[in-house]
Design brief:
By secondary structure, the protein is an alpha+beta fold. The protein is built from 13 helices and 21 strands. It binds flavin-adenine dinucleotide. The site of flavin-adenine dinucleotide (FAD) has 33 residues, from helix 2 and helix 13.
């Protein structure tokens, strides 16, 4: 046996493309391969993002941004798009830059990967959890598998691509081979908030807000979505990603500040209200919102500022105006927990990055051991960036593993 690989289809496909003669195996512990691809992007699979400048692209990775710059010069979203399109998968770019198959079905991506593996003669073993890896002289690896047909296998090259969760055992095996695992914490989650200002408003969204925590030095801008449990949407998910470790340390209890206007200061919001007072004094506050907010949120903010709904702008006094400007630009919400985002969630933390040579995605400690995907201390924000990191590291891991034997 010349070569054995663990999951991450892409590394196996890339290895086979470089060295068609290599014997390549994928071991998958579950009964179904690529199960995360299947459920990804709400069943649509957000394959990558239309960001083709590596310097710009790395800015979407709270962890791994420095290390991914080189790899993105080798394999970036343009390559991902070309790879799928050259295999007959038509892709489309949505207004926000996310790229999906035109079919809007992850099955299209799944089928393409499975067919490509079949064409390249890659051997896929399901219900084959890898339990242990040890190094032999040579060097080579002995791999113990939970399988009656192939309990122990010898491999010259190994790619660990078991994903980010502790449950996979991949991190433990990397550790047993000498690697350090950095602190694990969930990333891309939504915030639990119980507050009269948002109660009963589930489903409403605001196109651009700024969410922040001064105490934790976190700030993000983007759309906000009110859910049954609290707040979600791109702004919240980005904050959860950039603050994954800080928020875990707080046990997800902290004060979230929401600027409903996006970027206005309190003085700017007050000036706009003052302007309304002078130009539309006879209008009731509730019927004229000079900010880009859904009417029901505007009503709640007026209530929260202690102002009667039927008050006319002309009768708004200085104190009320200041309170409303405060509420608009710095609403404080106590957060008391988190929920995972249904569309996409990832793990922050994993194999320590300075122990990996990113030119080959190879361990600096164990020759011929490669890593790809979320098992590394790499994660991105939502939008196709997590798959892109997996395609890129998978491509480099697989092709460089194969190059050294081809
Ligand atoms: C619900 C959801 C939706 C998502 N949607 C998107 C999206 O649309 N776009 C995007 O960019 N990202 C998305 N992500 C994130 C993305 O799926 C991951 O970042 C990506 O799949 C990581 O790839 P990976 O190969 O490292 O790990 P995984 O995809 O997790 O694959 C690891 C595989 O290894 C197997 N395995 C684990 N341990 C063992 C073992 N010991 N032996 C054998 N096999 C093992 C697992 O069963 C699994 O099949 C989503 C995540 C979730 C949870």
């Amino acid at each position: 046996m010349s070569e054995a690989e663990r999951p991450d289809f892409f590394s196996a496909l890339s290895a086979a493309a470089v060295d068609p003669g290599a014997e390549i195996h994928i071991f998958e512990k579950s009964a179904h391969i690529l199960s995360k691809v299947k459920i990804s992007g709400g069943g649509r699979c957000n394959v990558t993002h239309a960001c083709f400048d590596p310097k710009e692209l790395v800015r979407f990775y709270p962890r791994g941004s420095r290390e991914l710059l080189g790899p993105f010069h080798i394999w970036q979203p343009r390559h991902t798009v070309e790879w799928f399109e050259s295999r007959g998968v038509a892709l489309k770019t949505e207004a926000d830059g996310r790229i999906f198959p035109i079919s809007d079905s992850s099955e299209t991506i799944l089928d393409c990967l499975i067919e490509s593996a079949r064409d390249l003669g890659i051997q896929v073993h399901t219900k084959s959890a890898v339990r242990e890896i040890s190094r032999n002289e040579g060097p080579s690896f002995s791999i113990s598998i939970d399988s009656t047909t192939n309990p122990v296998l010898r491999a010259d090259k190994l790619v660990i691509a078991t994903g980010g969760g502790v449950a996979s055992g991949g991190l433990k095996m990397a550790q047993s081979l000498g690697h350090t695992i950095t602190g694990l914490a969930p990333s891309l989650f939504t915030f639990h908030i119980e507050d009269a200002r948002i109660q009963g408003l589930a489903g409403l969204s605001v196109p651009e807000v700024t969410v922040s925590s001064a105490a934790l030095n976190l700030k993000q801008t983007g759309a906000l979505l009110i859910t049954h449990w609290g707040l979600s949407g791109p702004a919240v998910l980005k904050l959860s990603a950039w603050g994954a470790r800080e928020l875990a340390a707080q046990h997800y209890r902290f004060e979230l500040c929401v600027n409903w206007t996006g970027s206005m200061t309190r003085d700017m919001a007050a000036a706009l209200l003052e302007n309304q007072r002078q130009s539309a004094g006879r209008k009731m506050l509730v019927s004229l919102c000079p900010f880009n907010l859904p009417r029901r949120i505007w009503e709640r903010l007026i209530t929260s500022a202690g102002i009667p709904h039927d008050l006319q702008y002309a009768r708004l006094n200085r104190l009320q105006l200041t309170r409303l400007a405060d509420e608009l630009t710095a609403s404080i919400f106590p957060v008391h927990g988190k929920s995972m985002n249904k569309e996409e969630f990832v793990t922050c933390g994993g194999v320590k990055l300075d122990e990996v040579d990113f030119k080959r995605m190879e361990s600096r400690l164990v020759p011929h051991l490669h890593f790809a995907g979320e098992v590394l201390d790499i994660d991105g924000v939502t939008g196709g960036f997590n798959f892109q990191a997996a395609w890129t590291t998978g491509y480099i891991a697989g092709s460089s593993a194969a190059k050294s034997t081809a």
